[in-house]
């Protein structure tokens, strides 16, 4: 007989994490623990208000399927029983972890993936005034890949120029978090190309991104808020060249694997991202990030502290997770 428990946790962020939609000083996560025959599987998710999720609602929806999980619900059954989103992610990842612990076979092998290797992750600079972002870039100048949060307030070019001054050798990704207007995309992109920006993430609100179709953008565009699961993937072709795969959006590792296969068939390149969370949330994402063009799994790096057996980062190089943590 399985036992399932769910709890919410708060993890302080080192400073503050600011994007175009707001700022926060702690990460609120939900952790699912499933025990069976002396083995324990865990999964972590981050409820995201952008998608109408709250900690209270996510915990409640997990409790709704709790009895079915205890009765032996499989991961495939879970996909049909729960909607895509953070709640399903925590349960799905806990089931993967439990299977690995019960069988002694690591998740990467059970999923038909290669053995995980170290990855170079982006490091995020929060949205701030240009001078503050320049100084943050100077402090992170040794990191090879920086991701800048932008605001769509007219100062974004100045911000990127300041970051380029602070970190002249870093590859830059910019993330507007739906903050730009359609008429701004091409003018901004042309100037950002001169500053060596390699990728623009979600420039427009998801409901307005049809304006991107067929434009001759000098920098590749990446769908984030516009991309969730397998459904809707076809629509992204012609709008974006990359898709940001996050487990909290796909509703777990199970669908994320399908999303990556679907994206590949449509010639969409992959970025694997995360929310601000502990290493428990980064671990399953690290498996699917092995073949990604861009990796953005610095969520645990942004915390003031991480959980036990946390992933080891050597600068921006992310080591494979220990099985004591997950998988």
Strand content: 15-25%
Q: Return the average pLDDT rounded to an integer.
A: 96
Distance between the termini: 21 Å
Class of secondary structure makeup: alpha/beta
CATH topology of the largest domain: TIM Barrel
Query: What's the CATH H-level homologous superfamily of the largest domain?
Result: Enolase-like C-terminal domain
CATH class categorisation of the largest domain: Alpha Beta
Largest sheet report:
8 strands, parallel
**Number of distinct beta strands:** 14
Tally the structural domains. 2
Task: Choose one word for the global shape.
Answer: globular
Unreliable segments of 5+ consecutive residues: none
Q: What fraction, in percent, of the residue positions are helical? A: 25-40%
Strand order of the largest sheet: 5-6-7-8-9-10-11-12
Radius of gyration: 19 Å
Can you count the helices? 12
CATH architecture of the largest domain: Alpha-Beta Barrel
How would you describe what is shown here?
The chain has 327 residues and is α/β, with parallel strands linked by helices. It has two domains: 3-105, Enolase-like, N-terminal domain (Enolase-like, domain 1), CATH 3.30.390; 119-318, TIM Barrel. Helices cover 32% and strands 23% of the residues. The chain contains twelve helices and 14 strands. The protein has helices spanning 55-64, 66-70, 75-81, 86-103, 107-110, 130-139, 156-166, 185-194, 233-236, 247-250, 253-265, 279-288; strands at 3-19, 22-36, 39-45, 119-120, 123-125, 145-149, 171-175, 197-201, 221-223, 242-245, 269-272, 294-295, 313-314, 317-318. Strands 5-6-7-8-9-10-11-12 form an eight-stranded parallel β-sheet. It has a three-stranded antiparallel β-sheet with strand order 1-2-3. A three-stranded antiparallel β-sheet has the order 4-14-13, with no helix packed on it. The chain is globular, with a radius of gyration of 19 Å. The two termini are 21 Å apart.
